[in-house]
Design brief:
With 268 residues, the protein is of the alpha/beta class. It has 6 helices and 17 strands. A 7-stranded mixed sheet has the order 8-5-4-3-2-1-17.
Amino acid sequence: MKITSVVENTSAVGMPVEHGLSLYIQLENGRRILFDMGQRRLFAENAEQLGLNIADIDTAIVSHGHYDHGGGLRTFFEINDKAKVYIHKDAFQPYYSLKEFGLKYIGLDTDLQDNPRLVKCDSLTRLDNQMTIFADVIGDFCCPQGNSLLFGPSETQNDSFTHEQNLIIEENGKTVLFAGCAHKGIINIIRKAEDVIGKSPTHVFAGLHLAKTPIDDAFISTLAHELMNYDNCTFYTMHCTGTEQYQKLKGIMGSQIEYLSCGEVAEI
């Protein structure tokens, strides 16, 4: 399996960046998967620069209903005329972020919600014997503190992230978990993944949503040590984790965690 970051907040190799996420996943059987698609067009432009063809994508997944993960839907439909896009049934509801000036809409383009290539997912969707999408993560352990700034579907209601879904891919004895922002808490997501497939992941790719609040050393230390309990798992983080927060995690976790920036590739 080969995972290329085509959109991320940073780039160590000089690629254009934005606040967003998009991962291009290549399986050994030839399948091509897109996990999230950034804000608008950058995922496609960067993919072309990296020699990756969005038209070749077989399957796309949108992790949740925020613009920095599913804002590129329109571009994807323009370029790719075949792939189904798996998205949670609640993803097109209105979502907001609290800024200094008030609430800002951060949801998806709702005029796309009836596109026939969209597959509206619920709690569990098994695509085949390799790929599983799941939602309905429970528990509040180590959930990101920045969640308190996010609202929806009502402007007065804190987001419960029912629209967040995660992807598991199994290949050659490896179990790889993909989570967009891990709003439901990465530990809770891993526990749900274990319930779904009956084993722990060997690799996790996820934003951890630590960047939207002041750095909390105690929280980061607790999270790092909980992740280290999965001693046979390697973590790749990105996007909303924050670079300073990542460095603190790295200082505790060492080689068990890496950062995947735009243009970089992880091979499993």
